[in-house]
Design goal:
By secondary structure, this protein is an alpha+beta fold. The chain contains five helices and four strands. InterPro entries: MpsC.
Length: about 140
């Protein structure tokens, strides 16, 4: 069975949302999934607990928390990764985890062999702006 990108992203978002709740006991405000050229970027919005948010007030705390969440994802990559692979229909090769200490967002980047360059924007782009910008390339 072939899924559309929208269906794949929705299924992955629900899977990651449930996984985060089960593993940490804390539910992110929302989960965003973007698929593009061998890469899947998953952002868990406002996913840090109040205690983790306090820990992120220092650089050392942010580093420790980033390492903790990276280890959490790596430890469970077998189960979570297998489910993402099943949904997407392609094997995962690498996962990168980052935390935005200001917003409380957790970002998972799954790659299938594509080199990664990730830029966090200071604001939001609307779909219309993004489509219009791409049409000028």
């Amino acid at each position: 069975m072939t899924y559309s990108s929208l269906t794949i992203t929705a299924k992955v978002a629900h899977t990651v949302h449930d996984f985060q709740r089960q593993r940490t006991g804390y539910t992110p405000k929302s989960v965003t999934v973007v698929l593009s050229d061998g890469m899947m970027v998953i952002t868990l919005l406002e996913a840090l607990t109040p205690a983790e948010t306090i820990l992120c007030q220092t650089e050392k705390g942010t580093v420790r928390l980033r390492d903790f969440h990276a280890e959490l994802v790596r430890d469970s990559l077998g189960l979570l990764g297998a489910e993402i692979e099943r949904i997407a229909g392609i094997p995962l090769q690498e996962v990168v985890v980052d935390i935005d200490s200001i917003t409380g967002d957790i970002i998972h980047i799954y790659a299938t062999g594509t080199p990664l360059q990730v830029f966090k924007l200071a604001g939001d782009l609307s779909v219309e702006t993004l489509i219009e910008s791409e049409s000028h390339l």
